[in-house]
Amino acid sequence: MKASLMIPERIREKFLREILDMYSKGELTASRASQMLGIPRAAFYSLLAETNTPLPQKLNNSIRKELEESLR
Q1: Are 62 and 51 in contact, with CB atoms under 8 Å apart?
Q2: pLDDT at 1 over 60
Q3: Residue 3 within a domain
């Protein structure tokens, strides 16, 4: 028999905000964050866009560098 937990909405929302914050700070990869949320990585990227969650600074720097190099 599998037990089912009823988790209050406010706790789920807090967990989601914490995961998004940790991702934004570079403490979690997108893969690990999506795994923790139990959603596919593509859905995680959609969630980032929906919530206007900033990308980690390291990723921003990498994207900026790649764009600058491609414009040369």
Answers
A1: no
A2: no
A3: no
Cα separation, 59 vs 32, whole angstroms: 15
In this structure, the chain runs to a length of: 72
Question: Minimal CA–CA distance to 58: which of 17, 24, 35, 21?
Answer: 24
Q: Tell me how many domains the chain contains.
A: 1
CA distance linking residue 64 with residue 7, whole number of Å: 40
Lookup result for tokens 């600058």: 68
Domain that holds residue 18: 11-70
Residue 62 tokens read as: 């990498």
pLDDT tens per residue, range 10-67: 999 999 999 999 999 999 999 999 999 999 999 999 999 999 999 998 888 888 888 8
Beta strands in the chain (DSSP E): none
